[in-house]
């Protein structure tokens, strides 16, 4: 049981990171849309946003796999 609690804590931390990445993506989009950045900064910020999106997608895919496994386990019972 102790190991499971530690895993739950790390999942919560990852979920927090996910939310932070989404918030940062939103900030980047706002900065780009307002035109406050130079062209080079737009490209840099866009590159960062794409990387954050990839990380978020990976996080969501991993969680979907966990949900699918749990559903499969419930179906087997």
List the helices and strands and how they pair.
Layout: H1 2-34, H2 39-76
Helix pairs in contact: 1-2
Account of the protein in words:
This protein is an all-alpha fold and 77 residues long. The protein has a single domain, classed as Helix Hairpins, CATH 1.10.287. The chain is built from two helices and no strands. α1 (2-34) packs antiparallel against α2. Mean pLDDT is 85; it is low at 1-10.
What labels describe this entry?
single chain; mainly alpha; Helix Hairpins; disordered N terminus
Radius of gyration: 18 Å
Q: Mind telling me which CATH architecture this is?
A: Orthogonal Bundle
Major beta-sheet overview: none
Tally of helical runs: 2
Give helix % range: over 70%
In total, how many domains does the architecture comprise?
A: 1
The ordered H/E elements are HH
Please state the overall shape, judged from the principal axes of the Cα atoms: rod-shaped
CATH topology: Helix Hairpins
Mean pLDDT metric:
85
Q: Into which percentage range does the β-strand content fall?
A: under 5%
- The CATH top-level class label: Mainly Alpha
Alpha carbon gap, first and last residue: 21 Å
Please count the beta strands (DSSP E, at least 2 residues each). Answer: 0
User: Which structural class best describes the helix and strand composition?
Assistant: mainly alpha
């Amino acid at each position: 049981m102790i190991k499971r609690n530690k895993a739950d804590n790390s999942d919560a931390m990852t979920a927090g990171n996910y939310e932070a990445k989404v918030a940062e993506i939103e900030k980047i989009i706002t900065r780009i849309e307002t035109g406050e950045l130079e062209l080079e900064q737009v490209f840099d910020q866009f590159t960062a946003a794409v990387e954050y999106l990839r990380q978020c997608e990976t996080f969501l895919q991993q969680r979907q796999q966990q949900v699918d496994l749990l559903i499969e386990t419930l179906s087997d019972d």
